[in-house]
Amino acid sequence: MEIEIYRVSHQLALYRVATVRPLRVQKEEFMSLEKWLVQAGETKVIDLDIVRSITIALVGGQIDVIAHDEPTARVEVHSVGGRPLKVSMDGDRLEIDHIQLRWDTIVDVVKGLGRRGDRADISLLVPRGVALKFDTISADGLVSGLHSDARISTVGGDIVVDGLHGDIDVNTVHGELSVRSHTGRVAARTVSGDVTAAGALTRFSVDGVSGNVFVDADGAPDEVRANTVGGDLTVRIDEGLGARYRINTVSGTLQLDGSIVKGTFGRGFTSTTGSLDSKWVDITANSVSGDVTVVRRPAAPATASVNEGWGSPDSAPSDEQRPTDGGAL
């Protein structure tokens, strides 16, 4: 009986090997790889079938990533300087790579920027739901209209993200980051580059050194959190939105809802304003010398434009701001 059971088990194992392994090989055979190499001085237009993810690695130049409602993509290479630009399509994964840039060799790339002159000007028309990973040294970038998550990193390039629905992770050394008309979460890290985020933010966080941070949040974000050394934080939220403040700064000045708080000297400041029963925002800030300012967006009259400009603390009327209820610890 034991021998018979062993034979049956052995036959089942052989059957699984015979049926499963060929299926895996067949799946790999359907994954097609196409690639193009665009030399310096050349231009090229590449039309692609279904694209679900994009990885971009550039040194210098400009790239615009514009979303549309089709599953296909188009790559327009307007110019290339320095080393050749590689474009490859592996299944549904599109990769645009200049000199096969990798972030583990970023120091060598930065050292050679001035000598090589590697740059490319590119326009991408991509599906709205495509997943995006975008790395650049000094290239500027525009990302517009995606309904997906995005990961963006730059050393010195200026990056604009417009009208994205999803979560964004952005990193910069000294390039400026601007997130406009956003719906979703934003997580940013910066050394000296300024960071601006505006829209229906569900959650915003930033870790920085000396870069200034501006947050213009519509509705009721769950949290606005900032950790900086010397960068200033300015936040604008809706009039009447409940808020809890937990702020710690050594030498910076706090201006919260029209009230100026001085002399905290790193002891911490906590305060609440409005109702915390339903929708309200948690604002947490830690800084050494940076100032922290929170202003209110006044309710727009019926005849006013919805797209109201950014209001600075100096320009906001004092009667449109509400005093804080708390004090220094």
Provide a descriptive summary of the structure in words:
This is DUF4097 domain-containing protein. It is a single chain. Helix content is 12%, strand content 49%. It is mainly beta and 329 residues long. It has two domains: 106 residues, no CATH class; 154 residues, no CATH class. The protein has a 25-stranded mixed β-sheet that branches. The longest helix is centred in the first third of the chain and has 28 residues. The protein is elongated. The N and C termini lie far apart (80 Å). The N terminus and C terminus are likely disordered.
Q: What's the arrangement of secondary structure elements?
A:
Elements: H1 2-29, E1 33-38, E2 44-48, E3 53-58, E4 60-68, E5 73-81, E6 85-90, E7 93-98, H2 106-111, H3 113-116, E8 119-127, E9 131-136, E10 140-144, E11 150-154, E12 159-162, E13 168-172, E14 177-190, E15 195-208, E16 213-217, E17 223-227, E18 233-238, E19 242-249, E20 254-256, E21 259-261, E22 269-273, E23 280-287, E24 292-297, E25 327-328
Parallel strand pairs: 3-7, 3-9, 4-8, 4-10, 9-11, 10-12, 11-13, 12-14, 13-14, 14-15, 15-16, 15-17, 16-18, 17-23, 18-24, 19-23, 20-24
Antiparallel strand pairs: 1-6, 2-5, 5-8, 6-7, 19-22, 20-21, 22-25
Report the portion of residues in β strands: over 45%
Helix content: 10-25%
Uncertain regions spanning at least 5 consecutive residues: 1-30, 309-329
Order of helix and strand elements from N to C terminus: HEEEEEEEHHEEEEEEEEEEEEEEEEEE
| Radius of gyration, in angstroms, nearest whole number | 26 Å
Oligomer: single chain
Cα distance spanning the termini = 80 Å
SS class: mainly beta
Characterize the biggest β-sheet.
25 strands, mixed
Number of strands: 25
Number of domains: 2
Count of separate DSSP helical elements: 3
Mean pLDDT: 83
